[in-house]
Specification:
By secondary structure, this protein is mainly beta. The protein has one helix spanning about 1-30, and strands at about 35, 50-55, 90, 100-105, 110-115, 120, 125, 130-135, 160-170, 175-180, 195, 200-205, 225, 230-240. It is found in: Membrane.
């Protein structure tokens, strides 16, 4: 009997330990940092497919999207600190409900437009200057096996896929890389966007391969993002792998471990 009681007590202690660990992990994920894996190439070359990072949940305060399964018991935001232009932000896509990561380009009250591939904010052209090329292998990338878009297309499997890199400087002085393929098409020649109060305008750094605020939600884009949908700021890459699996250690990108995000 004593042996059975000890086994029962041991089982209960194991269950309690697991429950406590899950509670602690949930609190940590809700209040402090949320893991995020980069699934697409929309933020190249700032972020690459296979980069793993922790999202700073404290940066902008909290909303119902801060909790797993949207279970935070409040509406709006609490402890809200407005994001800054140029921040790399994870947010809940108001169209399809997925978590996206893009760069914050437009603040409430701004006007934005793309003309011949150049960005205009509040009627002024945003400065950019050529900064070499971004070269990658034309091959399936990451677990989804997606192929990159190339400025020098068409290219064969295993060939060099090239995009021109520019350094863009936003009105508040934030400078970051962008990649371009063309200056044609809707994404590069848009109407004027007027960012409403309480909403934000996001774009991918890989300008010709990004579903972002330039596209309305009803055509698969993001549109304007309400403040309540902001989840947190991406500050630093923790780990990175170019392979189809995390366990392919020979594809790990050691030079990107703990790299700051700008």
């Amino acid at each position: 009997m004593a042996s059975k009681a000890k086994k029962s007590d041991g089982f209960l202690e194991t269950i309690k330990t697991i429950v406590y660990a899950l509670i602690i992990a949930g609190v940590f994920r809700t209040l402090f940092f949320q893991p995020f894996w980069i699934p697409s190439g929309s933020m190249k070359d700032t972020l690459l497919i296979g980069d793993f990072l922790f999202v700073n949940k404290m940066a902008y305060g909290y909303s119902r999207y801060s909790c797993p399964f949207n279970l935070c018991p409040f509406s709006g935001r609490i402890f809200f600190t407005p994001p800054k232009r140029g921040d790399v932000v994870v947010f809940r896509n108001p169209g399809n409900g997925e978590d996206f990561i893009k760069r914050l380009i437009g603040l409430p009250g701004d006007t934005l437009q793309m003309q011949k591939g150049r960005l205009y904010i509040n009627g002024k052209e945003v400065p950019e200057k050529p900064d070499g090329q971004f070269v990658e292998t034309y091959a399936p990338q990451g677990p989804m096996g997606s192929y990159p878009r190339c400025e020098n297309a068409p290219v064969g499997e295993g060939a060099a896929c090239i995009k021109t890199r520019y350094r863009e400087t936003l009105p508040n002085g934030v400078t970051h890389d962008i990649l371009k393929i063309t200056d044609q098409g809707y994404a590069n020649n848009t109407p004027v966007f007027h960012v409403p109060k309480g909403k934000y305008f996001f774009m991918g750094d890989n300008r010709d391969n990004s579903e972002d605020s330039r596209f309305a939600q009803d055509v698969g884009g993001v549109g304007f993002v309400p403040a309540v949908n902001l989840i947190g700021r991406a500050d630093r890459i923790v780990f990175s792998s170019a392979g189809r699996s995390l366990f392919y250690f020979w594809t790990w990108r050691a030079d990107r471990f703990f790299k700051a995000i700008h």
